[in-house]
Amino acid sequence: MDRREMLINSGAGFAAIAMAGLLDGELQAEGTHHLQLAQHAPKAKSAIFLFMEGGPSQMDLFDPKPKLREMAGQQLPESYGDIITPMGEYDAPLLADKRKWKQHGESGAWVSNWLPHIATCVDDISIIRSCWGNGLNHSNGVCQMNTCDIRAGRPSLGSWVSYGLGSVNGNLPGFVVLEDNPGRVINGPRNWSAGFMPATYQGTALQSTDPPIEYLKRLDGMTAKRQRRLISMLNRINQDQVDAHPDLSELDARIQSYELAYRMQSTAPEAVDLSQESESTKALYGMDQKETETFGRNCLLARRLVERDVRFIQLYHGSGSKWDAHSNIESNHTTNCLASDKPVAGLIKDLKQRGLLDDTLVIWGGEFGRTPMSEKGTGRAHNPYGFTMWMAGGGVKGGQVIGTTDELGLHAIEDRLHIKDIHATILYALGVDNMTLEYLHQGRPERPTLNEGTPCLKLFA
Amino acid sequence: MHTNVITGNAIVINRIPVSVLVLLSLVVQPVFAQQFSDSERNLWSIQPIRRAIPDIPGTDEWGRNAIDQFILQRLNESDLKPAPPANPRTLVRRLFLDVTGVPPTPEQVESYISAASPREYDALGEELLENRGYGERWAKHWLDLVRYAESDGYKQDGLRPNAWRYRDYVIDSLNADKPYDQFVKEQLAGDELSPGDADALTATAFLRHWIYEYNQRDVKTQWDIILNDVTDVTAETFLAMGYGCARCHDHMFDPILQKDYFRLRAYFAAILPQDAPHAKEPDTIKKYTDQFAAWQEKTNDIRKEMLELADPFIKQSVQGSIGKFPRNVRPFLNKPADQRTPYENQIAYLAYRQVDATPESVKAGEKLKNEKKERWDALVAELKTFDAIKPKSPATVMAITDIGPQAPETFIPDSGEQEDILPGIPTILNPEPAKIPTPENGLTTGRRTALANWITSPENPLTARVIVNRIWQHHFGYGLVSTPRDFGFLGEEPTHPQLLDYLASELIRNNWSLKHIHRLIMQSSTYQQSSRHPEATTNLAADIENRLLWKYPARRLDAEQIRDSLLLVSGELDRKASGPSDDAISMRRSVYTKVIRNKPSPLLANFDAPGGILSSPERNATVTANQALMMLNSPWINKRYNAVNQRLIKMQPDSIEQRITKAYEIILQRPPKASELDRALDFVNQKAEIGRDYLFDDFNKILINSNEFMFIY
């Protein structure tokens, strides 16, 4: 009886199969494709989540509010209810946006002049103006945007994807995270942890520096040849225990894990080796300009990872709450938009010109948006009650605007999409049903969206 | 088979798909909420503990104590035979790793082997239980359960510089074989039950390990989450009951009503975090209090004047801060304390943790101008002259008390009912509210004492079963109940119910001695079996998961065992016990390294150590390429390999053959077989561009990375 059957016999059902699939995937040599576990025809093979950390302002980017300009300086009308703001500035006056707005593309979607490059992609983008969540502070918000729960401890979305769909490329991790300021993201590696699931499904932080993955680089004096010899000898010695305990599959798995580790030392650096990219490609991502170089590089890396069948790639922009414009939103968002706009647009255009956009779901958004009320006179507070995200590629019908917020942009009102719905939607695009994917944890069936959440099918063509 | 399960997409519990059960429970909900079905009343884990030892004749090799009778009974029923005894070397390594968390030294192995006999074996087990390493190893299992960490979590992840006192409390309690009922009582209500007892106070940190956001303005919601967390962890840790499901609705599978969730939560309704003075000698605190009062008296006028000078800034700070809290909190803060309800006082206390209200914290000295500033500076200087009689603050400990003798009310949220839910045990066991003793000092509610008394009552069917199952689990890799967190319908039933009850009754009969249970397990033939079986293939067909224990379950070492073993064989292990934790790169045992929620130690996390956020009754044992990369390329780990090499060269400077033999003895606790020695010599003598010493280094690295080192057999 093989491991997969054993797991099924243990009564864990679908969840166990998904796990066995992944184990097989990891153990197979040279990254052969294994059993696909999609529950319906997937629209996307990979997803890239562009996480604008700190909370970008919807009413300054994608959700124009003429009423806000009219009422600027006044109090939020009582009809909007009692709003809790994290920094505790209550009764602050409403703050008008200072943007120039234009309709773009054939679809005529509104985008402000803070994002001129993304504006050229609107016909490929579906803007969702009616997102909402429960996290009032960054830690809660970032945690919920990753795990559906404001409280820590659950597996992140990328882990669920790894668990549910397995790894396609046997030589690279299936869930990769890129930070623009490594080590600064709120909550740290907990954001891409596998929670209560095995560490196998956790995200791997990857950098464009050398080495791209922690511990990937051999130490001085350890040549590839010498290490090869070491691992071969290790395999022979390890095989003794495999022979003595034929039913302990972990022992053989350890042999395979060293082989994979050995291969990753060449495949991972190759994956991040941008010297293979042309100057014009790099320029498309803004890598030729100082302001856009860092995020441009990460966006380009994301494309290369997609080409190598990495399932779930999460890019943090502004890691360390850089989008968090409590005061002086003008200078804050000018800087952040400049640094991210061209790289993001470059990614979409590059994916499209290479025919990869159809199979790649791109998601853009922060942990929350910002309030129409001012803070410290020139900034805006956190707003989990209504904010904008967008998606492109992966079967998404471009040129749409879904949902609305109220006249001031505070609450999502029409087609409200909770973060759980957004996760359900992302999973749907990848072929996973959020209510079917289960992981048995301590006797309880756990699901990626906490037994709630519905995919927004309007998004898809 | 695969296809069926995939398309069916069903999780099957006791052969009924979950979806059907959910549907059923929804349909019968009204009845379900009011009364319990026979099957619920018959849930195995809430039946009284029954003691009955089967009379199964043992053999020469098998049957050292009662445990073996139970195991043999099930094996006989399945026509299986147990494995032969493990060889003495394997057994001694198993015992050391299992009981103390590190393998034996070659000398320890030899001294045992030379006299290996059942008596020697038992004596060794006894010795190891008396070894400090026992508490250091087994405390970790407990710390996993109670989500122990030394930082707050959340964005700031602030350090908890005194959390280690609780860790030491657990280690010391286990080493002293503190009766388990006392151990439980101290953690739930040490402050009420043993006022003035430093250990008992330290124990209440059990109720403090929740994640906490120090600047969360939404105080009410955060407090609600904290009370839920405390309720969940208590139910899971002591009772293995999945109360969490019942927070929002009656439990769909277990006989736990939503009301029962809040009855349990009500025991904690009055709790208040306190960072209390801590000293082993009660006199120390008394002395401090007296000296401090004397200093206060002598400096009264000075401080009063300073307070007056600072008053405008304090008022400004307090008023400014209060305005930052939500409207549903502000009124509590503006009321004088004696006009607040207990709940309002609790919330105000938590909110005021965020408010600067002392002359120092509002930086009055920097804000005053002209004469006032001069006067301030003069007062500061004058106050300083009393420093000599000002006592040094005693150490503090994270602890719990109550807001007062009256508990805040507990409501079921969104139910529309305004009935104050009183503390009580699950309705199925007793629907009446609990009887609450009145604490002598009149400062607390007595509710937690009532809970502690119920949990540790010998009549409680769960407590003893749950803890003996955990001990069994950590000796064998899995419990007699394989779902250590859930003894309800969603969990699995015990494979050996009578054995579980026998151990539970042994625990209670022996004054709740955990070491007694360890002893019984370690002395059993079941534990001393080989992890290999001559008829493994046949046996696997009958019992693929080895749940009947026809052999000892081999398994990967856990994170701390790997790290500590590495340090032991490299000769670098720092045995310093107790005290504040060190960074992960220190040479101390892992239990003495910091548990930082947002920055886990890469080595420990990579090998599946939990993050200290949720209660973790069991760990995964993954095998990943990231582990292999780390073991191969981590600079810190490679320094340990180098230390092993240096140690071996020093021991055997001349003969490479003897050096390899020594490497086997130190790393794998056995000499190499002749064929292994030949293979090793071939490896280090390769004609290569790599030097012989390098290859010897590599060989040690190979042994440490080997399946043999990384597993317990």
Structural description of this entry:
- The complex is a heterodimer of chains A (461) and B (713).
- Chain A is α/β, with parallel strands linked by helices and 461 residues long.
- Chain A has two domains: 36-208 and 278-459, Alkaline Phosphatase, subunit A (3-Layer(aba) Sandwich); 214-271.
- Chain A has eleven helices and 17 strands.
- Chain A has helices spanning 3-27, 66-71, 116-119, 138-147, 157-165, 224-244, 249-271, 279-284, 290-307, 329-353, 419-429; strands at 46-52, 101-104, 109-112, 125-132, 175-179, 204-205, 312-317, 360-365, 369-375, 379-383, 387-392, 400-402, 404-405, 412-414, 417-418, 439-441, 444-446.
- In chain A, strands 1, 4, 5, 6, 7, 8, 11, 12 and 15 form a nine-stranded mixed β-sheet that branches. In chain A, strands 2-3 form a two-stranded antiparallel ribbon.
- In chain A, a hairpin with a 6-residue loop joins strand 13 and strand 14.
- Chain A is globular and about 75 Å long.
- The two termini of chain A are 44 Å apart.
- Chain B has 713 residues and is mainly alpha-helical.
- Chain B folds into five domains: 2-34, no CATH class; 66-136 and 474-601, no CATH class; 179-278 and 398-455, no CATH class; 282-393, no CATH class; 625-712.
- Helix content of chain B is 51%, strand content 3%.
- Chain B contains 33 helices and six strands.
- In chain B, the strands form three sheets. Chain B has a two-stranded antiparallel ribbon with strand order 1-2. Chain B has a two-stranded antiparallel ribbon with strand order 3-4.
- In chain B, strand 1 and strand 2 (16-17) form a beta hairpin.
- Chain B is globular, with a radius of gyration of 29 Å.
- Chains A and B meet through helix 1, helix 4, helix 6 and helix 7 of A and helix 1, strand 1, helix 25, helix 27 and helix 28 of B.
